[in-house]
């Protein structure tokens, strides 16, 4: 099976712009989660989608949003970018039950100038 | 605040030695997972241990879980230079199981 893929791998934006990141989960996986990783805050949970519905949400401002399509692919959007949004954004997929393993993609490195 | 914390924050050992890192968490869980990350790249899943399990092995990895102490340990035996990476534990929130929290990570350096 192909692993989790994320596009693009690298992105440079300026403050105030918006950005959309994409994640394709492992075939058959219905749950997709997004994480932000920064040196200062570590790995933080953004949100989880399951069957096109947001099932859980972390403590991030409304500028961070996401969605999931019927084929389980997911997108994450950040509007009005701030310098502090520079981070590695990781997507993870799993089957959807509490005991399923999460598998991560390689991440998208976002730099906000 | 973080659900989990790893200890130590950094560990440096010689190739061939064993490496032990610990993870503590705050709330009840359904399962705990360990991951490895090389140089800011994606996370690689190492092992999952369920809350009703006490010990699990996978190759050179041994994971223990003590739910009474809310702690877990990861032992890497006969370490190799390729094991150099950051290691994270991830726990869910027992009530939902669908939201995962990562610890602060242990940076392991294996010196050849």
* Classification by helices and strands of chain A: mainly beta
Rg of chain A, Å, rounded: 13 Å
Largest protein interface, residues of each chain? A-B, 28 and 26 residues
Q: Report the span from N to C terminus of chain B.
A: 36 Å
User: Mean of residue pLDDT of chain A?
Assistant: 92
One letter per element, helices H and strands E, the order of chain B comes to EEEEEEEEEEE
Please state roughly what percent of the residues of chain B sit in beta strands, choosing from under 5%, 5-15%, 15-25%, 25-35%, 35-45% or over 45%: over 45%
Mean pLDDT of chain B: 90
Radius of gyration of chain B: 13 Å
Global outline of chain B: globular
Give the strand content of chain A.
over 45%
Name the assembly state. heterodimer
Please outline the major beta sheet of chain B: 6 strands, mixed
Kindly name the structural category of chain B.
mainly beta
Give a written overview of the molecule.
- The complex is a heterodimer of chains A (113) and B (112).
- By secondary structure, chain A is mostly beta strands.
- Helix content of chain A is 0%, strand content 53%.
- Chain A is built from no helices and eleven strands.
- In chain A, the strands form two sheets. In chain A, strands 2, 4, 5, 6, 9, 10 and 11 form a seven-stranded mixed sheet that branches. Chain A has a four-stranded antiparallel sheet with strand order 1-3-8-7, with no helix packed on it.
- In chain A, a hairpin with a 3-residue loop joins strand 4 and strand 5.
- Chain A is globular, with a radius of gyration of 13 Å.
- By secondary structure, chain B is mainly β.
- In chain B, 0% of the residues lie in helices and 57% in strands.
- Chain B has no helices and eleven strands.
- In chain B, strands 2, 4, 5, 9, 10 and 11 form a six-stranded mixed sheet that branches.
- In chain B, a hairpin with a 5-residue loop joins strand 4 and strand 5.
- The radius of gyration of chain B is 13 Å and the shape is globular.
- Chains A and B meet through strand 4, strand 5, strand 9 and strand 10 of A and strand 4, strand 5, strand 9 and strand 10 of B.
């Amino acid at each position: 099976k192909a692993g989790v893929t994320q596009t693009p791998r690298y992105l440079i934006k300026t403050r105030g712009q918006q950005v959309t990141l994409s994640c394709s989960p492992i075939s058959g996986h219905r749950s997709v989660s997004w994480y932000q990783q920064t040196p200062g805050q570590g790995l933080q949970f953004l949100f989880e989608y399951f069957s096109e519905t947001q099932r859980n949400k972390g403590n991030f401002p409304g500028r961070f949003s996401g969605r999931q399509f019927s084929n389980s692919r997911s997108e994450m959007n950040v509007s009005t970018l701030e310098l502090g949004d520079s981070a590695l954004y990781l997507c993870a997929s799993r089957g959807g039950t509490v005991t399923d393993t999460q598998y991560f993609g390689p991440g998208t490195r976002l730099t906000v100038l | 605040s973080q659900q989990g914390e790893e200890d130590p924050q950094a560990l440096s050992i010689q190739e061939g030695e064993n490496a032990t890192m610990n993870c503590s968490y705050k709330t009840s869980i359904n399962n705990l997972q360990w991951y490895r990350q090389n140089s800011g790249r994606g996370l690689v899943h190492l092992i999952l241990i369920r809350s009703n399990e006490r010990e699990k092995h996978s190759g050179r990895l041994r994971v223990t879980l003590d739910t009474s102490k809310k702690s877990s340990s990861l032992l890497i035996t006969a370490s190799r230079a390729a094991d150099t990476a950051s290691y994270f534990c991830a726990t869910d929130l027992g009530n939902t199981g669908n939201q995962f929290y990562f610890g602060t990570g242990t940076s392991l350096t294996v010196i050849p």
